[in-house]
Structure formats: C-alpha cells, structure tokens
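Entry for 2-phosphoglycolic acid complex. Fields follow.
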Amino acid sequence: MRTKIAAANWKMNLNFQQAKDLLDQILASHVHPGPGKKAVFAVPSPFLRIAAKKMKSQDNHHVCAQNIHHKKSGAYTGEVSAEMVRSVGAEYVIIGHSERREYFQETNAMLAEKINLALESGLTPIFCCGEPLQIREAGEQDAFVKKQIEEGLFNLNAMDMMKIVIAYEPIWAIGTGKTATSLQAQEMHKGIRSVLAAKYGNEIADSVSILYGGSVKASNANELFSQPDVDGGLVGGASLNADEFVAIINALQ
Ligand code: PGA
C-alpha cells in the first residue's frame, strides 16, 4: 500500500502569529490521518521549529521545508541547508516547485543535488514536476515531465528512489483555479509510474506516492484522490484555510 499524503504548501504567506493560529485551528479539528495516511505542512523556514513542536505529539503529522540550498554549507548568504531544516524538525522538503524553477532558475541538475543532500540529511523529498500551458497545448506534456524525472531523479539507486514522493503539478493549474480533470491527473500519474517502472521495476514504481497539485480544494479533492494513481495532493491556496485543509486531509482514501 502506498502512503497517502495531504501536503500543505503555505508558500510565502502568513506571519508568526497567523501561522500558529492556523496550525492550532487545524489541530483543534482533531483530524487523525489513519494508518498509511499523512498530513504534511510545508511552512516558511522561520516557522519550521514551532510547527515541528506542535506536530510532535500528533500521529501522522509532519513538517516540511519549502526549499533547501543545493550546496551542503558555506558562504551562501541568506540560504538554508538540508541539515539546518532537518535539525529544527522538518522531515520532508519540497524540491523543484515550479515557482522555484521559474523565479529562481533552478535546473534539474541543481535539483538532483538538492535531492541527494535531502536524503543524506534524512529528509523525504517531495519532487515537483509538471508542464507549462504551451507544452500541454502542444500535446508534449508526457515527454516534458519524463525529462524532468529523468534529470532530477534517475541518478538515484533503487533504495533511495523508494524514499521519494513525487508531486505532479501542471503549471497552468497552480493558483489559477483551473484544476486538471481527474482523468488528466490519472493519465499523467500512470505515465509517471510507467517511467519509474521502466527504470526501477514495477515493485518500486508501485511503492512511490505521486501527489497531484494545482488548485486542489475541498470540493474536488475526493474526485481527484479517487483515481488509482493519485495518492493525495500538494495544496497551495486551500491549505491556508483550516476547514478546507482538514476536509482535504479527510478526503485521502
Ligand atoms: P495551488 O498551489 O493549490 O494554490 O494551486 C499548489 C502548489 O503550488 O503547490
């Protein structure tokens, strides 16, 4: 059985008080992801420590960094390392979100370095992939995503590949209110799984959780998560509202 994950991506939102309030509201709802299910919170770096403290006594709740630097340590003013976020309680890290690829020029080669550092530090990477609108309109999304996966992940050995979570996030669906249909999500997730199977074999491909991201909300989570290859969601906007995100956690199947 693959792990089912509802991952909140707060991006660069909220101040400290607001962050604490939102976490408290979610915890007050007594949402209990059952066995094999997880609620993951990708909070801004300054809030990792408090989030980790609050999640500590909660089963199946985990804290996630939104990014790490691709070098281990050193003279990189303003950057945050894998070891730093791990040492304040993060257990996951988002790697290669499309906003980082676009606004911070992160390449697949850099992302491969980040994945290695994350694994070395004991973090579970959530590796993001997904095509822009013009690629989807040209019908080239499968080849585009395959290349991202090959360049970002295929230097991993089989043992490490099993530790990766993948998030498919079509860029045209992020923050636009335009969700991929459950069929579009299922098709791509199945395609990603067959790319993994060709390299690592069926058993490993079947064990990797593949999340969908892009305008997931309470009203569409059930339908998306009911697809056989959709193992949960990476949720931006809707994760900033406690009721919405709790409903999304409860939609994990
Ligand atoms: P969204 O963002 O849910 O606001 O579309 C998803 C993401 O960027 O991870």
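NOTE: The chain is about 45% helix and 15% strand.
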